[in-house]
User: What shape does this take?
Amino acid sequence: MFTIPDSLISAVRTARHIAVLTGAGISAESGVPTFREAQTGLWAQYDPLELATPEAFRRNPKLVWQWYEWRRGLVSKAQPNPGHLALAQLELKVERFTLITQNVDGLHQRAGSRNVVELHGNINRTKCFDEEVVIESWAETGDAPPRCPRCGGLLRPDVVWFGEALPRQALAGGQPTAPDVVDHRLHDLHVQLRVRAARSRQRQRPVALRARPHWSVKNLHSGTF
Ligand SMILES: [Zn+2]
Assistant: This one.
């Protein structure tokens, strides 16, 4: 059974600013397939590396849009797991808490986390391909992708594709920027949460209740433990 090390407990108790990094593992525990696992059924024939690029979108925007629609469907069926919920609770107990995630599924926010830096964007948000501004609503004409109501250009998911820079809004604003947090300069405790990727081979089984967080912890002021 996983036990939380005493050193982590005392570090969390005394930290005033905690930064946590999460990646695909915590989403996998909610049943969201990782990027590479995601290709099943109709989409198995496609390489995600060839769908998640600006070039792929320019070449075949309909195909890329429909792929994201399918992935949004997968995400919408997933629920936050105890790992997400624990981080949302931790945020309430710490003076300053920054959650930095590579995940695009929004599960941290659905679990209640507020200060979330989405390094790779959010699959449920849409932006204009040309203008790179977030678009909240548009006319549903049946086009895939739909058109930007501002400029008539194509809409795309607001995620970071291969070859693209990290979003400015994730790197700026009133909070310490993600690079600063990652640089370990502005916080006391840096927690990298890894959730065991070993899931049931039967994908249909709910996995959320079996989430077992693994903590990889660096106390930046007193070395690694
Ligand atoms: Zn536009």
